[in-house]
Design a protein that fits this description.
The strands form two sheets. The chain has a five-stranded mixed beta sheet with strand order 6-5-4-7-8. A three-stranded antiparallel beta sheet has the order 1-2-3, covered by helices on one side. Helix 14 (about 385-410) packs parallel to helix 17 (about 445-460) and helix 23 runs antiparallel to helix 24. It is α/β, with parallel strands linked by helices. The chain is about 55% helix and about 10% strand. The chain has 27 helices and eight strands. It folds into four domains: about 1-60, no CATH class; about 110-285 and about 615-680, no CATH class; about 290-385, no CATH class; about 405-515 and about 525-610, no CATH class. It is found in: Nucleus. Keywords: DNA-binding, Metal-binding, Nucleus, Zinc, Zinc-finger. This is BED-type domain-containing protein.
Length: about 675
Amino acid sequence: SQTAKRRKKSAIWKYFTICADDVTKVACSICKRVVGRGKNLGHLTTSNMHNHMYYKHRNVAGIRGTQSSRRSQPTPAAPAAPAAPAAPADPAAPADPAAHASEAHDRLSRTMTQTITDSVGEMISMDLLPYSFVENHGFRKLMRVVAPHYTLPAGIHFSNKVIPRLHQRVTSKVIESLVNVEGDVVHCTADIWTRKFSTSSYLSLTGHWFVQYMSGGGAVTHKRVSALLSMKDIDTESTPAEILQHLLGLVEEWQAVVPHRFAVGFIVTNNTSNMVKAMAESGFEHIRCMAHSIHLIVTGAIEECRSVVTVINTARRITNTIHMSTKAIAKLHQMQERLGLAEATLTHDVPTRWNTVLFMFQRLLEQKEALIDMSAEVDLGGSVAEPQWTLMEAIVKVLEPFEEATRTVCQDDASISSVIPCIQALRAALNELIANKDVSDLLETRKLVGLLQSHLEEHFQHVFETPTNTYFKATLLDPRFKIMPMALLSRLDFERLKAAVTVEVDELLEQDRMLSSGEAVSSSGVAPESEDTSSKPTSLFWGAMQSLVANNAASLSKSVTSLGLETYLAESSPQSLASDPVSSYWSVKMAQHPALARVAVKYLACPPTSVSSERLLSTGEDAVAPDYRLLPVDVPLLVFTKYNLVKFHYANPRDHLEQHCCFIQNLFSYSFSAHVKSSPI
C-alpha cells in the first residue's frame, strides 16, 4: 500500500509501531508513549515522531529533528551520506569487508556516544556548571568540530538522566567503602556556608574513617578515607535546634543505608555559637575545630594591639592601591627587574583567614626595596616608616608558629592526636619568642606575645581539663606522641588515663571472645624502620615540636615489660612527625594487639578540624557567588558528585590523566573515522 511504501522511506519507523485501535497514532518502542501523526488519513506525517525522538531520546545515535526544529538548531557539519538499501544476503557469497567495517563503526559510534555524554556529565559536576551550559552556542560549536556525528542532548537530559546516574555511581562507591569501615565508627565534620545576598545556606556533613585491605605483599594495611556524606539547602535563619534536626536527619539517612556499620564517633565543627549550641544538645561528642580556634586566638590578640592594627591597615592600603593601578603594577615589576627581585604581585589579606595577614606582611618585606624606591615616583596610598618595617618583621616572627600549627592540623591525614602536641609546641615557641631580643625589645610585639599566650590558654582550656578525655586518649595512642601525656599529667592521672584506655580494649576483647581461638597470635611482620624525625624544615614551631618528642622519649621507662598497653608504651619505635600513625604503625601491630589497634584506629581517624567541610563549601562558593546561573537546589547534588568523584573515581591523579587521554584519543579516532566515512572518495 501507499502507507507501507511511505513507512519504508523513513528510518524513524524503527522506533515506532502503529496503534492497532487508531492508525493515526503510533507508540514509541522506547518509552511506550503514544504520538499522533495527524487527523487526515490521506495526509499522515512523521513530524511529531521526529520531534518526540529529538526532545525525549536525543541520546539515541543518529536522531535528528524535523525541518522546523533543525532550522532553530546550529547547522551540523558534513552529515554522513545515507547508506544504500542492503541487498538480500547470499549465504554462498563471501563476507563483505565494507559491511563489517560499517558494523564496527556503528558499535564504536554507540559506545562513543555514551562515553561523550558521560564525560560531559562529569565536566558539569567537576566544574559545577549549570545544566544549560550544554546548550551554549560556543560549546555546541566545539562539539560539532570534535565529534560531528554526535548529537549533544539537551540540558534536561543531563539533569534528569546523566547527572543522577553519575551521582548514583559515586554514592555506590561511598557505600562500598562504608561497608568495610574499620571498627564500625565514622567521625563527622559539619559546617554551614551562607550564600551572599540570599536566604540560602548549605549544611554539609563529611565522614572520616579507615578501611582495612590487603597490600600487594599480602600484609594488612589501612587506608584513610574521607567523603562528603550529605549536603542540604537550609534556611539562613535556622536556629540551633533546627540545625540539629537537619544534622540528625542526614545521619539517620546514612544509618538506614548502611545499617550496623555506621556509628557516629565524634563530630567536629567550628566555634560559632549556633553550632556549639546545636552540638550541646546532640548527644554526640563535640570536637571544636582547632584551625578555627587558632583563628580566634590570633585575631583576638591582634585586635587588642592598636599599633599592630595600624601597621596592618597601612599594609592593606598599599596593597590595594597597587592592585588597583595598572601604572603602579608596571612600576613594581620594573623595580623588581632592576633590583633582581622575583617578579610577584602583592598579597591581599582576607578577613576570614588570619594567616593572609602574615602572607601580606611576608610579601611586603620581600619587596621592601622595590616599594621604597617606588614611593618616590608613585603614590602608594600610604608610607611605611623604618620603625614600622621593623615591627612588621617582628610580627612575622611571632605569627609564623601559628601558621605552621594551622597548616599541620589542616593536612588530610591529621588526627586529633596532634592537638595537644601542637598546643605544647605553640607554648614553647611563645616562650622562646619572649627570650628573642628582636621581639622582646619592641613593646608592641611583647604585648602581642603576652596576649597570644593568654588567648591560647583560654581557648584550649577544655583540652586539659579531664585527663581521660578524647584528646589525651588519642595522644597516648599515637606512637609519635605517646609519652607526652606522662609529662603533662600527674602519676595518678596518667594511671587513670591508661585505665580508661584499657577498659575500651577489654570491651573489644569481650566482643571478640567468641570469635577468637584462645591462642596468642604472634606477629610475623617487621615494624617499619625508624624514620628521621628531623624531616620537617627547621622553624621555631617544628623545633619546639621535635624537642618535646625527644625529651619525652628520653624519659621513657625501660622497666615496663607487661603485655598490651604497657608493652606498647615501653616499646621504642620512633616515628616520623610527618607519618600517618595508623598506616605506618598500627597496621603492622594489628595482628599482635588487635583490640588495642582497633581502639587506636577509632581515635586516630578523627580529624582535628572541620576544614574538609569548609573546603567543599568554598568550592560551592566559587560556583554560585559570581553569578546565580546555578540554582540553589542543584548545588548539593553537584558538589556531592564532584567531591566524591575526585576521592573515589579519580583517587589517583595519574589514573584521571590516563583516562582523559584515552577518551580524547578515542574521540578523535571516532571523529576521524566519521569524516572518512562521510567524505566522497
